[in-house]
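Lab meeting, item 3. Inverse folding demo.
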């Protein structure tokens, strides 16, 4: 599966699907990573680098937990997230993160992905990506959405979410936090961020890209057909969701 460019997480998930009753044929993605990186020495290094999408033959060291992990009061962890969010059946639940530019510029772009449709919104963060800047941009962006699309946000434990309670109060959207070093818990957002790097390369000055550019990039992604939607676009899926909900509300009012 790795030679077919499956990620370790996809390999683990596929094994569970294909061998649901045989636990000996199942393995966690973390075990796959550990096996690859531990064994990936000498002649195996190139094979490991080729098999993994990151192209790295060694694993990056994990940052230790502690005050620098960006933890703060009032956090609600992803383990306490309602079950309805998991299967993507209910729209209005988002995943968010930052893509970071060059260190010297302190620039970043906020990214938000709606889990059901894959619809993308990008946040312009002028000057920096402090908690105040991110919360201001996020509140403004989320409040442009209809109420039925403002159900929740899942984010990592970065310091930019220190004002998460203010965001919830202003938008009505609870924020759920991923476990440390667990980007797969925001899988839709991680995949989207990978696509966005085509437009916003690493180690570049992201402050160059103003709101208009960000809107154009988001529109391009939202108009890209997706296999999981039968090759409909995220914009089409979201429009259909809103139309169905509007019709249901109309029927209920008439009744």
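The presenter then showed the designed sequence:
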């Amino acid at each position: 599966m790795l030679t077919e460019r499956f990620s370790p997480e996809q390999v683990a998930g596929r094994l569970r699907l294909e061998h649901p009753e045989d636990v000996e044929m199942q393995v966690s993605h973390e075990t796959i990573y550990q096996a690859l990186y531990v064994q990936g020495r000498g002649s195996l290094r190139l094979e490991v680098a080729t098999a993994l999408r990151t192209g790295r033959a060694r694993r990056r060291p994990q940052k230790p937990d502690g005050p620098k992990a960006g933890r703060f009061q009032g956090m609600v962890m992803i383990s306490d997230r309602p079950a309805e969010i998991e299967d993507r059946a209910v729209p209005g639940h988002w995943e968010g993160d930052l893509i970071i530019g060059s260190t010297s510029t302190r620039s970043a772009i906020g990214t938000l992905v709606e889990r059901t449709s894959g619809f993308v919104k990008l946040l312009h963060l002028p000057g920096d990506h402090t908690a105040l800047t991110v919360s201001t941009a996020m509140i403004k962006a989320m409040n442009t959405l209809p109420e039925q699309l403002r159900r929740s946000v899942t984010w990592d434990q970065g310091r930019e979410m220190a004002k998460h309670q203010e965001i919830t109060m202003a938008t009505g959207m609870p924020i759920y936090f991923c476990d440390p070093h667990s980007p797969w818990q925001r899988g839709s957002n991680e995949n989207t961020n990978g696509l966005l790097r085509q437009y916003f390369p690493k180690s570049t000055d992201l402050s160059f890209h103003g709101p208009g550019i960000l809107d154009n990039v988001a529109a391009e992604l939202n108009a890209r057909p997706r296999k999981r939607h039968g090759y409909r676009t995220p914009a089409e899926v979201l429009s259909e969701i809103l139309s169905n909900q509007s019709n249901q509300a109309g029927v209920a009012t008439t009744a």
